[in-house]
Amino acid sequence: MKRIFVFSYHGKETYHTGYYRLLSLANTLAENFEVYFIHGNINEVKKGENKENLIEIPLLYRNGILQKVYAFLKKKSPYSAKLLVIINYLFTKREIFDLQKETLFYFNKSEIKPAKDDIIFTSFPSLSAHNLGYELKKKYHSKLVLEYRDPGVFGYNLIYENEWMSRVRKSFLKKQEIRNLESADLLLTISDSIKKFFPERYYNNVHVVGNGFNNHKIDISLIRDNKQKFILSYLGSIYSSQLEDLTFFEAVKDFTVKYKVSPDRFLLKFIGINDVPVLNKIITRFGLENYTSILAKMPIEKAYDELYDSSMFFHLKYGNRKEVITTKQYEYLAFQKPILLPVSDDGDIAESIKKYNAGYICNHKKEIIEVLHISFKNHLEGKPLKINHTAEELYELSRQSQEEKLVNLMNEL
């Protein structure tokens, strides 16, 4: 049986979308191949779980002084933490949290190690995962698959980077990325938009395996309406680029004032977000504290529990980036409640909402207030809008449909 080694930079304790996506891919691949799912861990490593053809191998990131300094700076001064990442890379050519040394050590002492006919599957971000894939291919002569959930040095600035940091990163890492691209036997990305960022010479080797909702975790029968309260929900991380345009928050404030909406009837809920002090300041600035609930990162099952009785979902566009299509869009679509894009990205998110006739795309504060008013009024009158998808559409939106494409590509490889 063909063997595939799937590497996740993130571990379970991060509750990171990338981890859940790769775990789902590994489980699907294990129906056809022998799969080793190797992921990083910040905390003490417990023995991995083994299923019939899926062997989990958690590896502990180095947790020395450098990592502790980074963790401290990230809480106190994110700018300084980013600067530390750059300085460390200049001297070591490694990320602060890097699994290469730990992985090679594990394979050297273990009977389990890649062989010539095996496949190494690594996902970006981060580049350290791709670098690890390159080193493993060079050492064991295995096949190499590089996946891009975000563009690397070719494409828009990553959503968690400002412009100067992106320029520095691309300047430092371009040589390594080209080396990795040249070494890959197969390149994957999540959308046609990101595929277009690759240099033309790689096009024939790039295949699209999109995001999707986790159909094994969502129970469609649990979707319901909260008759007492209108809940406007946002799922997942928020980045500084999403908080540059405050039109949405201005509109929510004006809506509550104009229509005398009380906090016991309307809730703005952020589910499973990273710690973003700027968001707290914005909520305070517009006097929305009593209307807002912010829930920290949590297991995906608990996050979904928070979505079942939502009335509407919303996005916040990623600055001027048009090519971002996150997993949350597929999850929103699966929960079949209307989606609000307060200020259009004029790109992939807007196109997805249009394609599935799934909600509202606005461009001005007045439009947002009107959508909130109509939706809130219909909700109180017991006539909430529901977005019904056919079984075929739900399958198309699921990870299962995309993972079947991946299985076929692995068989061909």
TrEMBL record:
Protein name per its UniProtKB record: Glycosyltransferase subfamily 4-like N-terminal domain-containing protein
Domain of life of the source: Bacteria
The organism of origin for this protein: Pedobacter montanisoli
